[in-house]
Amino acid sequence: MDVELLSRLQFAGTIMFHYLFPPLSIGLGLQLFLCELAYVRTKNPAWEAAARFWTRIFAVNFAMGVATGIVMEFEFGTNWAAYSRFVGDVFGSALAAEGVFAFFLESGFLAILVFGWDRVGPKMHLFSTLMVFLGSVFSAVWIVVANSWQQTPAGYKIVWQEVQGESVPRAEITEFWEMVFNPSSIDRLTHTIIGALVLGAFFVASVSSYYLLQKRHQEVARRCLNIALPSALLFTLLAGATGHSSAQRLVETQPAKLAAMEAHFDSSEEPTGLYLFGWPDGEKETVHFGVRLPYLLSFLVYNDPMKPVPGMDQIPEEDRPPVWLPFQMFHLMVGLGTLMIGVSAFGCWSWFRNQYEERRWLMWLVVLMPLAAMTANQAGWITAEVGRQPWIVYPSVQDGVEMMGLRTKDGLSESVTAQQVLSSIILFAVIYSLLFAIWVFVLNKKIQHGPETPEELTAHKEKQRPRLSEAISAGGTSLGGSMLEDAS
Amino acid sequence: MNPFDWLSYDTTTFMCFVLLGVLLSGYAILDGFDLGVGILHPFLAKDDHQRRVVMNSIGPLWDGNEVWLVTFGGALFAAFPVAYATVFSSFYEAFHLLLTCLIGRAVSLEFRSKVQSVGWRRFWDFGFFLSSFVGAALLGIAGGNVMSGMSIGEMYRYEGNLLEQLTWYPLMVGALTVSLFALHGSIYLYLKTEGELQQRVRRSVMPLFIVFAALYVAVTIATWIHVPHATQNLTDYPVLWVVPLLNVLAVLNIPRAMHLGKPGYAFFTSSMVILALASLFSVAIFPNFVISTIGPELSVTLENARSSYTTQKIILLISLIGMPCVLSYTTVVYWIFRGKVKLDSNSY
Fold first, then answer.
1. Residue A397 dihedral angles phi and psi, to the nearest 5°
2. Spatial CB neighbours of B15, under 8 Å, sequence gap ≥ 6
3. pLDDT value at B47 more than 80
4. In chain B, what residues touch A100 (CB-CB under 8 Å)?
5. A397: part of which helix (H) or strand (E)?
6. B287 upstream amide cis, omega within 30 of 0
7. What is the sign of the dihedral through the CA atoms of A445, A448, A451 and A457?
8. Computed from CA positions of residues B301, B305, B310, B316, in that sequence, does the dihedral angle turn out positive or negative?
9. Out of A66, A172, A415, whose CB is closest to B158?
10. What are the CA-CA distances from residue B49 to residues A69, B59, B341 (Å)?
11. Taking the model in full, what pTM does it have?
């Protein structure tokens, strides 16, 4: 296999594995903040038990996000050196901003969030939780901005530099804010963050429903569902709205991607229909077993059922993305999104009519929903990233001037061999499989253990109190002893 | 519209270089004691309780400390994209191994105490040690290679391989880094522990110092002989001699401060040693990032690696706004978690 394919596989594998964790951090962060806010306002110990419990889950997940995230930053340089030289001026500044504005904020306050329960007051702790959540959102902002710039570049120019007698192009920023607010930033950012919030809401709803099914931790579970079910409904609806807006923009900015997502091969004067499902064949440029609803794509894209949507035949052959994968992933995402809207709507309806706990099948369905949300998040990104091929940076037109893009095959590290990439893929495969198994194991252990009961919590604080005063009076002598065994 | 508009392009380039030096020093000082604690972990902690105390001494802090490296990487990418691309792709295997170590350390800390099983905990204890040890060594080896120059060919294409990066000089710098971080970590642990464990830590400081001092002298001599260009800037700008001079004084001050019973002062001093060594490294390579051993005209320099004037001013502005915030909440976190390690239900 060649370096290009291997490097793409490596990047796809490592980013997809990484992306198991950040959306849950963002989504769970919000749920955690809401639980804690309820605790600070009501002082009800069940809310505190809930917040402490979600913190433990959050911590395990966050550690995995950090551990796998640093890989991504290194990979741009190790595997994509030519790309890094081309975009460093633009992409690098977004990445640096992410480090300074987001990562430090997250990691600093994470310490207080996870380890500070018995060290700071409830309000300071709540503030820390909010900062960690905001940090994870800022992090998403900068990295999605950087990614969006590659899809719809703006605020830059191409400069040809003399390097050892050769002329080499690179992108340079002309207007920072134009670069940040490039044509797809806002749509893609809101859709990405809401996708994460959907996952967080369903994750909390899932674990809580599981407890209700098991008749354990029922008070905490019911309180959490009060927040999680309505927010799941709200966010799934918003995901639909932002996704729609994102797709409408595509016809102007990346028509090739839209054509691939809809397997729309041939343009015509007729209104364009929408495939509900099918099996696109890129070589024969046709869709097998497809069911197509007439007018619908035209309507969704242009709000006008009669206006034809341009097809793949408008795109020069060498600039066409693969069709099968974006088509299937896009349809998978939309299908799961629809399912999630249905489940959360029916869940809410049952919940507020006090019928939720009678419908065990519904609760089991909700238990499974985080998988749907996770899959939809991944499928969305696969659509976005495969659909932009063969470009790593899209060509664009700035003030009437055509700007060159960068093809994925031209972004590789010149000095890296297939052998090297293959070895690192094997290395990651081994480590990541191990990590995944352990993550599932530890997460399951935490969920099985569950939140403390209000009595356990009171007992814990009773133990803590004399210790703290003793510690202060003794100037910080050892506290060892029985608390050690509480670690699990 | 940018407060740095009045500076020339060369000045912003120099300031970005200094900024990278600050980030790298910050990383080495802060994560240096984390890695040192990891290296010492199996040798100083004798039972499960002590192992947990050692791990929790860096528990709330290591993650934030690692962010300095991430931000260093992002800033290098933004301010000197060519240097980022060349250095990272040249160290292909080494950096993937470093990543493995950083991942290994994170998950060892996170997972170790989650299960009550001797085998499970042994496994992660070993993982914590190995990832800290190899990680520290790799950082030093990379630094040693950058110091002595690398086989950078035409168009910044690296012509060497992993074996070429493992020659005696980089390995010596790797050993120096391990010993320095271990020493730094031992002083940190002394501050965070008490009782029998603290006594054992105390006894390890002098031997660690002697190993470090010996390697320090050896690497200094080796640099003098093997890396002539490293001392060029000292010859050209004699005022820079103040850096190695302060460095030596700081090194000697570590045993003095420990002897005087001022471990906080000793920790400050070992932090200054790291700062001085990082500064020496910057002085030694300036105005290059990596000297090409194939031909000087192929070297990656500040000038040919830098990003545009606009971008450099943006980076400086981001730092001007961001770094005071970073320092303020870093201070708050260190303040909240000051004092001796106390294990509770939230600990690792």
1. -120, 120
2. B4, B7, B312, B316
3. yes
4. 71, 74, 318-319, 322-323, 326
5. strand A396-398
6. yes
7. negative
8. negative
9. A415
10. 31, 14, 11
11. 0.89
Q: Tens of pLDDT along A212-235? A: 999 888 888 999 999 999 999 999
Rounded Cα–Cα distance for residues B198 and A44 (Å): 41
Under an 8 A CB cutoff, do A478 and B340 touch? yes
**Smallest Cβ distance to B311: which of A89, A110, A477?**
A89
Considering only CB atoms, which chain A residues are within 8 Å of B195? 478
H helical segments located in A254-308: 255-261, 296-302
Q: Do A66 and B66 touch (CB under 8 A)?
A: yes
CA distance A221 to A209: 7
* Strand partners of residue B292: B150
What is the spatial distance between Cα B124 and Cα B115, in angstroms, rounded to a whole number?
Answer: 11
- Judged by CB atoms closer than 8 Å, whether chains meet at A487 and B347 is answered as yes
> Containing H/E element for A274?
strand A274-281
Tens digit of each residue's pLDDT (9 = 90 or more) over A421-464? 999 999 999 999 988 998 898 899 889 988 888 778 877 777 76
Q: Closest Cα of chain B to A424: distance in Å?
A: 7
Strand partners, A163: A166
**Beta carbons within 8 Å of A437's beta carbon, 6+ residues apart:** none
- The Cα–Cα gap between B64 and B337 comes to 13
Please judge whether A173 and B308 are an interchain contact, meaning their C-beta atoms are less than 8 angstroms apart: yes
